[in-house]
Fold these 3 entries.
Entry 1:
Amino acid sequence: MQADQPQEIASEGKDLFAKFDDVIALREGLLAQGREDPFNLVMEKVLSPTRAICNGRDTILLGTYNYMGMTFDPDVVEAGKQALADFGSGTTGSRVLNGTYQGHKEVEQALMDFYDMDHAMVFSTGYQANLGIISTIAGKGDYVVLDIDSHASIWDGCAMGQAEVVPFKHNDVEAMEKRLRRIPEGAGKLVILEGVYSMLGDVAPLKEMVAVAKKYGAMVLVDEAHSMGFIGENGRGVVETAGVIDDVDFIIGTFSKSVGTVGGFCVSNHPKFEIMRLVCRPYVFTASLPPSVVATAETSIRKLMHGSNKRAHLWENSRNLHKGLKDLGFTLGTDEPQSAIIAVIMPDLEKGAAMWEALIKGGLYVNLARPPATPANMTLLRCSLCADHSESEVDEILAIFEKAGKEVGII
Ligand SMILES: Cc1ncc(COP(=O)(O)O)c(C=O)c1O
């Protein structure tokens, strides 16, 4: 048959979008009730780390990861502007070709200073840092032992590397040990943990877990995405408060939370770590971060080293919000405040969406989280605090929660 002749019998092809029909129906069901779309919010203007105009309303932001309020820090903004003027808008290339500028080396030095570690490697996102490091170090025949509630980027890194994946019950040290005990003698083992788990805002028992991992000769990677900058005397994360920073092999982090921009990284003391720059595909086969981004990240990281006052105020905010919500009668993800994330558990998705809408109409933005991103099929309203929330803003947040909770019939 010639190429320009129409095919006579068009076969009934399978619509590859059919697998999304359940999600489409769920979404349409929610929107059919006339609800504002919780997954399509537009910030029309951002006024500060804690306030924005959303849907025409002045809104308190309680669902960003801007934990340390660095996005509008004058030194950070100035560093970005200067780098944009001096180096242009982008590198147009991979780190291993034309994409390593002075700024990339400087932000890596800032990370080595921040963590007091020998090596730092910057990726274009935290997602890519997990994807790259995990898939490169744990390959076919190796074993990855990981918490069942691990972030999607960790699971995707495991899938890409094709190691045997052995999940264990969330934060359960005994379950983790049981899995490690069963791994064949001599196999390569990597234990992956997170400092703070972002859905419930709970902290991992890293002291016990790292000790168990070491007992079985496993390497340890800790993702500190939600604790860097805030938790620990120097903001190094849960590894710092647990006293295990020298026992872990890799710390993964992101610039998209406390640092206040975008990017990801891995720091390590492993003597062969630098080889990663040549063998890690998500580092090699993508363009490097723009000069303005690495300049803002470097300035922010260096300022976070001296952020103890902000850290103290953020803890105060976390304690006040946790106590206030508990006193109002909401069910929370943790008994005590453990991080800057406080998760309010909703009875179901419908009530969760109604509550989310009542909050946004009242001038408060939080994250609505639902399965499969959440543990145990929970619907959550995730509140993430900022060091720049004032005491009176936390009071305002509680008043909005009280009004919405009564309106929707949750309290
Ligand atoms: C635990 C964890 N790791 C990694 C990431 C990815 O970070 P990024 O936004 O830089 O891709 C996230 C982002 O939400 C996260 O929560």
Note: Residues 405 and 411 are 5 Å apart (CA to CA).
Entry 2:
Amino acid sequence: MTSSMVLEKPIENPTGTGSDPSSLPKRKLIVARAAGYCFGVRRAIEMAQSTRERFEGRVTTLGKLIHNPQEIARLQEKGIEASDRLTTIKGGAIVLSAHGVPPSIPREAREQGLRVVDTTCPFVTKVHRAAVKLFQEGYQILLVGDAGHTEIIGIIGAVEEVGGKVTRISLPEEVESLVLGKKVGIISQTTQTAALYGAIVAEVSKRVREVKAINTICGATDELQSAAVDMAQRCDVAIVVGGKMSANTRRLRDLCEKQGISAYHIETPDEIREDWLFGKETVGITAGASTPDWLIEDTARRLYGGNLPEDWNLTHPDA
Ligand code: SF4
């Protein structure tokens, strides 16, 4: 159920411009019924924190643990460093991302004498397994996803580890130029939209007789997206909180905008501009799967005049 609350206080004027705030219209604040941390990201943060508490040596994440600079900064303050290269980590424990890594990474880390904390989300592990199985069954593998994304690199690495190959694709229009065999297996990055995945499967099916489509989109992604659409249909403007590099946050913003309203992607509440809200009676808030609760709550406070509404109820996706 979507939580909603009526703004009893006028929105503070974040830009510091304008007239008497009490003259601003009362607005309704709607929080998407699911917003913020998914199961996998929450688990990764908890594993990293618990390693920090129990382990005396250095704790370093390989790359960014999640796509949220503010939470990464908070972890750094707690003594959890980040490094882009395995070779520059000089000892201690290495924490691997929830999005997964190629199998060569934990192997090399252990060879380097590092203690490995693998936070790969179980749903991402399932994609690795599905991809390897498709290869072993003789399918040419198409992977729907964003170029260079950590999860994509991990999936490709898992298939290459067993001698296979993966073709990554991000748009249905790209299918035409692909050289396709007789048997094609199609999987997806966990955070893609079902509509895009379905469109690519449909295109491939026009050209290939045997298509095995395994929908590996994560339930959390679906839930965040459908909750964002539902929220956007009930508000005049949407504020979408999440890292600027977070692909799933960007998709939430796009989906909100597709519902015919203005939608703004912010990392922190300081970015909210009063002119976005001018004349809008209902403000919706949602957040990507890597956005910590404290940032969503700070945003709500900003929109609600400094306090959280009494009936504030932030619910995460089930998966
Ligand atoms: S979006 Fe889904 S697959 Fe990705 S980390 Fe979260 S729960 Fe796991």
Note: Residues 251 and 312 are 25 Å apart (CA to CA).
Entry 3:
Amino acid sequence: MGRPQIEIRYRLKNGLLNTPCYECTSHKLDSSGYPQVRRNGTRQHVHRYLFQQVRGLVNDDVDVHHKCESKMCIRVSHLEAKVKGQHSSEHNTGKLAGEKHPNVKLTENQVCKILKDTEHTQQQLADKHRVGQPLISKIKRGERWSYISA
Ligand SMILES: [Zn+2]
Ligand SMILES: [Zn+2]
């Protein structure tokens, strides 16, 4: 029977999405904060490894994007294959929900405006700032950017 499976342990953690993240607890993080696995002498991110186990192999020019923005998450339904160029440009234009990547995020100014805004619905605010509604919800609940006081 095929290759031996690696043993991966994880814990449930509520994140940006409606379903909890599977936060990997069994593997060490690399310098960018992604859990890493060694297979046949090469290193790979655990989420990428698992994604390929479930969805099939992806080329080197394809990134496995975290829809939940949690680097430690290994839940395949939270992952999505994206061509590298498209992936980075979507992050750069803030098109993706819950931006947390270093090169794109809502500015503090935008977060302040969102916090103070009481006349728009969360969905309207999400559309306006081109982020996902779950992120707006989190900002409103003070779960993210809690260092900003409205
Ligand atoms: Zn996740
Ligand atoms: Zn991404």
Note: The beta strands are 10-13, 21-24, 36-39, 42-45, 62-66, 79-83.
